[in-house]
Design goal:
about 270 residues, mainly beta, Immunoglobulin-like, 13-stranded mixed beta sheet, 2 helices, 13 strands, globular
């Protein structure tokens, strides 16, 4: 083989390998302030490619990320929470024509899930509180994500069990050592037909907040139980939910910033 061709191929291989490594190592940082958003607002970007639900976030590099990492998000457990390395959650959403996606990078010093599939909230659990019609009257969907006896599962805790097929959704909950001693990556794909009859399009606005329950059974034996959400308020009351705006396709402009902003959606 010609020596120059061999060198070129070797360089291409090394560059591709580095790109794959860097992509697989992607961990998010909160970036919502860059897009003209107020606290309690986020943008759900449209994705043209289906993310792989594998507990890695390389498909989420251009999404809008929000962090729950301060006492401003402690609805419960202000005296028990020891700071960001104890528990903090950086989360995002995406959608396409058929699916609503959620991802979270959870920094945690101890992952202590429930062993009871009927009561996942006894241990580490993520809830989503959703008001699809944004009427601020009722939380119409309440999915929950937990790893019970080693199996990642999606639960439906909506009033009256409105979304019984949610358990069929794709989910991955995988450890990530870069997120602390027992940090986890959550990644979920929920078909919109499992969640709502409301037609979701660009410009749709819903009431929304994730909530992180560290366990009502206090599995870590702290001085109290910890629950984090937007604004440290009761998310079961729809009037307290934040706003999630469904935006345009996720892309990066020539300056390296996400093209979508709240300003060009309004």
């Amino acid at each position: 083989m010609n020596r120059n061709i061999y060198i070129c191929l070797s360089v291409i291989f090394i560059v591709n390998a580095l790109c794959l490594t860097l992509s697989a190592d992607f961990l998010p940082e909160a970036n919502w302030k860059q897009y003209g958003l107020e606290y309690g607002q986020s943008i759900c970007g449209f994705t043209n490619s289906t993310p792989k639900i594998d507990g890695k976030l390389d498909d989420w590099k251009y999404a809008i990320w929000v962090a729950f990492d301060s006492k401003n998000e402690l609805f419960r457990g202000a005296n028990a929470w020891k700071g960001k390395d104890d528990l903090s959650v950086t989360w995002s959403t995406m959608y396409d024509d058929k699916t609503f996606y959620f991802a979270a990078a959870v920094r945690d010093d101890k992952f202590a899930p429930s062993n009871d599939p009927a009561q996942p909230w006894l241990g580490d659990t993520i809830f989503l509180y959703i008001d699809w019609e944004n009427q601020r009257v009722e939380v119409s969907s309440k999915p929950a994500f937990a790893k019970i006896k080693g199996k990642a599962s999606v639960f439906d805790f909506s009033t009256g069990g409105k979304n019984p097929r949610l358990s069929e959704s794709s989910i991955s909950i995988e450890p990530n050592a870069k997120l602390g001693a027992e940090g986890m990556i959550y990644e979920v794909a929920m078909p919109l037909e499992f969640l709502t009859k409301v037609k979701i399009t660009k410009g749709s606005i819903i009431g929304f907040t994730p909530g992180y329950e560290e366990g009502t059974d206090n599995p870590e034996g702290k001085g109290g139980t910890v629950f984090m959400d937007w604004g440290a308020v009761n998310p079961d009351d729809a009037i307290n939910l934040g706003k999630l705006i469904f935006g345009e396709a996720l892309s990066v402009d020539t300056t390296g910033k996400l093209a979508t902003t709240w300003g060009n959606i309004k």
